[in-house]
Specification:
The protein is of the alpha/beta class. It has 16 helices and 32 strands. Helix 10 crosses helix 11. It is elongated, with a radius of gyration of 28 Å.
Length: about 750
Amino acid sequence: MSSAPEQEAVAGEPLTAPADVRPGSPTPLGARCRTGPDGVAGTNFALWAGGAEAVELCLFDDEGQETRHPLTELTHEIWHGFLPGARPGQRYGYRVHGRWDPWTGARWNPAKLLLDPYARAVDGDFGTYTEAGPGGPALPAQLYGHARDWPQQQYADTVRDDRDSAPYVPKGVVVADDEGGDVWRDDRRPKTPWPDSVLYELHVRGFTMRHPGIPEELRGTYAGLAHPAALDHLTRLGVTAVELLPVHQFAHEDHLVRRGLRNYWGYNSIGYFAPHAGYAATGTRGQQVGEFQRMVRALHDAGVEVILDVVYNHTAEAGELGPTLSLRGIDNRGYYRLQGDARRYADYTGCGNTLHVVQPNVLRLITDSLRYWVTEMGVDGFRFDLAAALARSMHDVDMLSPFLAVIAQDPVLRRVKLIAEPWDVGSGGYQVGAFPPLWTEWNDRYRDTVRDFWRGGAHDVRDLGYRLSGSSDLYAWGGRRPYASVNFITAHDGFTLRDLVTYEHKHNEANGEDNRDGTHDNRSWNCGAEGETDDPGVTALRRRQLRNLLTTLLLSTGVPMLVAGDELGRTQHGNNNAYCQDGPASWMDWSLLDDPHWRALAALTARLIALRRAHPVLRRRAFFSGRPQRHGGLRDLAWFGTDGTEMTEPDWYAPGATLAMYLSGNDIPQRDDRGIRVVDDSFLAVLHAGAQPRAVTLPGPPWAGAYELVVDTSAEGADADGAADGGARTAVRYAAGAAVAVPGRTVLLFRVVPA
């Protein structure tokens, strides 16, 4: 179809300087500062745009005046040129010419300024400029390659909009290769082994926005996270890695802008090389790159690794009715999976589009981005959002897919931490336990089982036994180890831990979708009252449940993941989908530390992490065998009923809310760096989810001579001046074979005193 009538003309008459650009090089892609053979400094620009008919490099001065430079060199579908005098800080974008034929998937529109997919910094923010729409403010219509307001809406995406988008979109920024200076000169990566890792999922902005020890001008930024006040909390807690919610440049969706909201989580990427400009304190003309690098360096100096949550499965351009910001206008058919009807996008992500990862240049974009963040930005690993979408070959999820094959052989990427969110929303997308060696996975089976047990929703303890001991039913194949399981009870997308014991129903009204968004399956229990209450019995029970959940997580074999603020009792007031809540509801409330109860919870969390770090039996590198071992003659893992005898097969199927797990420290199949066999204490963990106290007989000889109580979650653990013992009762001993009264809804952890 033809262009929409009565469109305004392209704004202004940009200057054109075709003679200024030298041939340059097709590699590397992106904008890289170089010195030409004649000693002239400038920047080499290279853009893959398969099928395009022409490409213009567009430079912008501080007043927004645009100068266009046609790129005339084309090598293997890469348009390139070297521009003398283009220096770091220069803002730029591209206009790409080609056919407009959405019926065949061709959506080139040179009226739309496009962000370089390889831009290493971005100046500005998509969604900053708004216009009045039918429901209020909206993203400008100029951002759309099609006529968004075309009267026949069913064909709106087929009608081209020729209005200039340049005034409404952020620009890429040329960045010097040494922007961070000598930040890496003596950097030492922590290189924490997987079994020793404790992950801490946090949001750069949310973690720092309300911290009283961080200067106001640094709150919400990379520099704020690098501040000693932020680092102090991480080191006191004892976590080994922060897992940052997306920090790639992202955009805000139109439906959020119309409701006066913004994308807070950031799962709407548009620039896979650029640190999100909104989190920069030092500036957005390339300074954010050095700021991010200094943040990573500060975390490394504190012994904390940096793992990025990355969103390579889709982009912010959404479906056919979404804006044209970058990839759609460069080569729609090359970057995105299209349906048989090429107007439409294959959507395995629930976000409107899916990157076509089997295409070599899309795969190159992703792997180049990953290597950049490792080698130039210093990060230590990645958590891949909806990783099953990346593992699809043509349609089905394929564990021999090009993406997984490339990662497995890449000399840089195969050495960093790789975490899969092992599902997507497409058919056959649930792949928990299916990813190959090198990969760890978010284990939602662990989440659901532990939630069910403590809320009283488990029919028996069969599944709980697997989850506590490393989920061998899911991961004991192909050389995988217990640390293939990232154990978590909460994550960013769902209730906080406090809300998990406070609400049985989601309360997402603030999102403006009439509480329709967010999952209904929360597996939560409000302990007798929906929402906050002054009832002392209910609040005490809720705090005990929090201690039970945290203790279970940190005593389980696998890699534990905490969510920032759960150790402080952070609440989102029942919102289980706070992706658009950029405000106090989502930010860390550091004032909770003024309450001795929440200080005690943080102290318990830190003590459990320290206990885990001190005892290799709690962070095994190999699965349990459950058989007698040659060293101690006992099983390395044993399960006991309440009568102190080992459980039999029928016991696993019987209804029950109590389980005792014996971990033998004398039978760890592991040697230290000197080749000496690792020997540790043995422990007995008793988990009792019933409401009433239960008498439990401690196993007698040869399992133990006595037991020393280490953790008792029925204890509040805070004294009057706010100090906390973290729920510990030390020096309390019980004879082997003794009957112990276990309070209702309690975890007891005993250290075994040998016979």
